[in-house]
Design a protein that fits this description.
binds flavin-adenine dinucleotide, single chain, FAD/NAD(P)-binding domain
Length: 424
């Protein structure tokens, strides 16, 4: 925040914004188009830009993304397994411009001034907004595990952002000896894509079974239980017997340190030597959200789930992995679902209406093999008594369900979410 601290700003703004009651204050004057700026063109931001246009054709919508190429994390474990090449993960937002008239700007946002309602780009350009949506994704906590910092991640991939990191992990797996050990370390919740590390272990095992059948995968988990646990454990037993070993923190304690040159992970009770090491570190909201003081001490951004407006700074909405939408998991599906609620509520607020109670969904598929997938789903609504989202329904793939059918559903889900989030 330029010039003033957030605390001073809230004094200036009063508490109305923090309570989500600022709708009327941001309505543009008659005859001018309301300006909505969206920062981050991933699953959350692209969906928000699209649905803002679908819900209100009169808005002036600008979507700002810093990367030339966005590679989807969802699907990246399949690329690691060798089912597709990296280009298959590339997502284009051109349709948002050509079909829906969204202004696409490629630039890094370096500053947000909530008082003047301005977004500043790296080249010095200022873009004004009436309402701002940010979906900046996550940053790795490079200070959380001794020995694992940004430099170490160039040797030891996290591959928790798709692109260069994905390629690094693939190359290391290809170079590994038959009989080698792949170690994946998994952080405590919350982090991006709770079942993702276990899907990764499965799909690395799928690759090893074909090309290095004497190798194995060890998962060193900071948790004592994990998403879709019984389904994953059964899958590993059935299709990768003896190849995938999950070790909970109950047995090993926490990770003490990592030696990135010797490929060693030392836990409280043991020392493990890997041939390929994949460290998935703890995470936090993307840099811009933290710089703007939209994050609380947890590192994530508190929001009012009716509109996903920040509870710390008015007129700014945070969606996707960066926001706290507990008990929703941090997933592409959640980001897409939150973006739609956020877009509808912004249109309400700009027109002087209070957003109604939200209802959101999430459905996460995980592949274990090309013809074997499992899933978990949830429905989330606002609880007036708990003053937050609560799960009102949900379930998992039944133990006796056809995993081949789930794999077909998983493939069609991906086509649908890609089109729904990125196409015009
Ligand atoms: C291995 C793996 C597998 C996964 N599989 C699935 C799955 O099967 N299903 C599922 O639902 N989810 C899955 N996910 C999770 C999913 O990828 C994320 O939850 C999703 O990408 C979150 O969307 P987002 O918009 O919050 O962030 P992102 O998609 O990361 O988008 C954030 C964007 O903001 C941009 N940005 C950040 N800061 C700035 C700035 N200052 N200026 C301009 N632009 C900026 C970034 O460049 C980025 O493009 C998976 C994740 C991983 C790691």
């Amino acid at each position: 925040m330029s010039g003033i601290t957030r605390r001073t700003f809230l004094k200036v703004a009063g508490t109305a914004g923090a309570l989500g009651l600022v709708g009327c204050s941001t309505a543009p004057s008659k005859g001018t188009k309301a300006k909505v700026v969206v920062i981050g063109g991933g699953y959350g931001g692209s969906t928000a830009a699209k649905y803002l246009r679908l819900f209100d054709p009169s808005l002036d919508i600008t979507l700002i993304e810093k990367l030339k190429t966005y590679y989807s994390c969802a699907g990246s474990n399949e690329v690691i397994s060798g089912w597709h090449d990296l280009e298959w993960l590339r997502r284009s937002r051109d349709g948002l411009r050509t079909k829906l008239g969204v202004n696409l700007v490629r630039a890094k946002v370096v500053e947000i001034d909530p008082q003047r309602r301005l977004v500043s780009l790296k080249d010095g350009t200022d873009i004004p907004y009436d309402r701002l949506v940010i979906s900046p994704g996550v940053d790795m906590r490079f200070d959380a595990i001794e020995g694992y910092d940004l430099n170490a991640s160039k040797l030891i991939p996290h591959a928790w952002k798709a692109g260069k990191q994905t390629k690094l992990l693939i190359n290391q797996l290809k170079a590994m000896r038959n009989g080698g050990v792949v170690i994946i370390t998994v952080p405590q919740n919350p982090y991006r894509c709770p079942p993702g590390p276990y899907e990764r272990a499965s799909l690395i095992a799928n690759y090893l079974q074909k090309f290095k059948p004497r190798a194995k995968v060890i998962i060193l988990d900071a948790k004592t239980q994990f998403s879709k646990q019984a389904l994953f454990l059964k899958g590993w037993q059935d299709i990768y017997p003896g190849m995938v070993e999950w070790i909970s923190s109950e047995k090993e304690g926490r990770i003490d340190h990592i030696d990135p040159t010797k490929l060693i992970v030392a836990t409280e009770f043991n020392v493990h030597r890997a041939d390929v090491l994949n460290v998935i570190p703890p995470q936090k909201a993307g840099w811009l959200a933290r710089k703007t003081e939209l994050a609380d001490p947890s590192g994530w951004c508190p929001v009012d789930p009716h509109s996903f407006e920040s509870t710390l700074i008015p007129n700014i909405h945070i969606i996707g992995d960066a926001c706290i939408a507990t008990p929703m998991p941090k997933s592409a599906f959640s980001a897409n679902s939150q973006a739609k609620i956020c877009a509808a509520s912004i249109v309400d607020l700009l027109n002087g209406r209070q957003p109604g109670p939200p209802s959101l969904i999430n459905h996460c598929y995980s592949f274990l093999a090309p013809d074997y997938a499992i899933s978990i789903n949830g429905v989330y609504e606002y609880s007036v008594t708990e003053k937050q989202l609560v799960a009102t329904g949900g379930g998992e793939t039944p133990m006796d369900a056809d995993r081949g059918r789930e794999a077909e559903f998983a493939r069609s889900w991906r086509e649908n979410i890609t089109s729904d989030s990125f196409d015009g």
